[in-house]
Specification:
By secondary structure, this protein is an all-alpha fold. 86% of the residues lie in helices and 0% in strands. The protein is built from 13 helices and no strands.
Length: 296
């Protein structure tokens, strides 16, 4: 936990950008959930709830006594009320279009500010690592291979960037969207929402196991990349010695061994990473089927 807090400290100088990104993702999540509920009056008008829609008693929004019906009536009731079915349908379409425009503007601001934060964090980390390297003594450089040092400043920094900004932004965005969608689902039907929640325990268990495996796999891949980089640097810098001693074949075999190790580490990591998507989809599909069965 202390390590994560230390890593998140790199966001402090760029708090303004990050807060802007959070505000944008909150607007996007709220409008995303709201656009989903706007399908209710659209479908009611489209499939013949015209007399109720024109009566002004909340028929366009489903049951007038439901919380969701009252919420939609308060939000867009005046906008979608019209003297004809086509007029009501036109107004609903315009409202949905306007919501999607604002939602995607918020998404653009979110992605742009997140990318700017990523770039600044990457710059700060690389500058700090390079400055730290210049202050280290000779013993460190004697016991550490040059390729490993280069890998730490390049590929490892990119991995930290993904952890600090990209993955954190995705986690926050998904959490905010989950809260808004869960609230909308509870307003529509709390019973069906509880049935849909049966997928959460197995999903969380799968995610916990996946996170541990993925972390181990990423570290193995990074170590293998560092070994490959070190071998290339040593061979190129000492190419005269390699040529003079006729060690080309030996160096080639050694490099093949390192690339095989990198390949095996990458395959093990990808095996778990690619398994997570289908597994979560199967859990979600099972929950949807259970929801349809319960709702019928």
């Amino acid at each position: 936990m202390k390590l994560y807090l230390r890593i998140l400290g790199y966001l402090r100088p760029h708090a303004g950008l990050f807060v802007t990104s959070i505000v944008a993702m909150t607007i996007f999540a709220a409008l995303d959930a709201f656009s989903f509920t706007l399908l209710i009056p659209f479908l009611n008008v489209l499939f013949g709830a015209n007399s109720l829609a024109l009566s002004g008693r909340g028929g366009m929004f489903g049951s007038g006594s439901s919380t969701m019906g009252r919420l939609l009536e308060w939000a867009v009731g005046d906008l979608v009320s019209a003297g004809s079915a086509m007029g009501a349908l036109r107004n609903v379409v315009l409202v949905i279009f306007g919501v999607f425009v604002v939602k995607n503007v918020a998404l653009y601001v979110q992605n742009y500010t997140t990318s700017m934060t990523e770039g600044r964090v990457t710059r700060d980390i690389r500058n700090q690592i390079y400055g730290h390297l210049l202050r280290l003594g000779f013993p460190f450089f004697q016991r550490t291979r040059t390729g490993q040092i280069i890998s730490r400043v390049t590929s490892d920094v990119d991995q930290m960037r993904m952890l600090v900004t990209n993955n954190l932004s995705k986690a926050l965005s998904n959490s905010i969207q989950t809260v808004f969608f869960l609230g909308m689902l509870l307003l529509i039907s709390w019973k069906l929402t509880l049935v849909a929640a049966i997928s959460l325990p197995p999903m969380l268990g799968l995610w916990g196991r996946f996170r541990k495996r993925l972390r181990t796999g990423v570290l193995s891949v990074l170590d293998a990349v560092g070994e490959v980089s070190s071998n290339i640097q040593e061979t190129v810098s000492g190419i005269r010695v390699v040529k003079a001693s006729g060690a080309e074949e030996w160096e080639l075999e050694r490099f093949h061994g390192l690339t095989r190790r990198h390949y095996r580490a990458m395959v093990r990591n990808e095996r778990w990473r690619q398994f997570f998507g289908p597994a979560t989809e199967m859990i979600t599909a099972s929950s949807v089927l259970a929801l349809l069965w319960f709702g019928s």
